[in-house]
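Q: I'm writing a short explainer about Chaperonin 10-like protein for a general audience and would like to include a description of its predicted shape. Could you first generate the structure from this sequence?
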Amino acid sequence: MSQIMRAAQIVKFNEPYELCDRPIPQCSEHDLLVKVHAAGFCHSDLQVLRGQFAADLPMIPSHEPAGTISHVGTKVNGSWKVGDRVGVLNFKHACGDCVGCHRNLQKSGRSDPRFCQKREMAGFKHDGSFAEYMIADPNTTIRLPEAVSFEQGAPLMCAGATAWGALRKLSPDAGPGDTVAIVGIGGVGHLALQFAKALGYKTVAIDNRPEGRQLALEVPGHLTPDLVVDSADSCADDKILEFTLGEGLAGVVVCTDSVQANAWSLQQLGNKGVMVPLGLPKDKWQFDSEAMVFRELTIRGSYVASADEVEVMLRIVAEKGISSHLTVLDFDQIPTLIERYTQTSMKGRLVVKISE
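A: Of course. Here's the predicted structure. Afterward I'll give you a sentence or two in plain language.
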């Protein structure tokens, strides 16, 4: 095997990705080397490129990889073997000693890299998956079902894990049969819609863009939302109230960083409703304190699902036929990603085919 791989990297913030040759990373005895077959692009990648997350450059972006194991470190635990189909979550290498690690050890008995203060974040602060090979932590590497292609599997490692984790945060306050809304039907939102339906919720798809509302209707038939609403419609609030028989929503997952959309979404909740905002706006959120107090509303933070939760999610994906609306690009098209992503007509997820 050649010791050089193709990669794309950020050399300067706010500049296009540059294609390059890089040495294949050295796999330690505790890690896995993964050959990347497909890698996704999401809104966080745009924020990384714009310098919103401090990182040393040059850096290989993308935190949504799917591929096969190429090498297994000699001290890796478990039944991993060369050729296994996998997806890789972006957080890895928990130190086991910090406050975040100790708190999780007390609660669950093991470290969770999501909350480690010294964790590595592939594609955010450390090299990610716009490359033919990447290093993976066995603790945050997930087996990919045969029914899920590499192209479909890649977005599930962030968009899917984020949507799934957010919906799980609605429980136990909201459950099957209750009405929940997904606001912002893009890459994360249209997966959240399908997950919500698969979990037994009545679902409302909300977006002020015709592309988003159309995307909501293009999911598999058994996962189609019960109601689609244009949030810019002056009657939007009334339509939601009518659909919920005057009660308001039991839960809402907001998949946009718009401060205005988040403020509006909170107002659609009924008594004791739960809102999970997923965006990371540059400005602070602004929520109605009276609505929160007098309706006893909950705003619940959600990072991304754990490795164990993602394994459950992937079983549901395979069983229910959940899928992303994909635009698949070749590796050489990576420098055009930002232009494609920022087009108003863009729907669903952008995925790059890295290798065969």
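A: For your explainer, you could say: The radius of gyration is 20 Å.
Q: Perfect, that's easy to follow.
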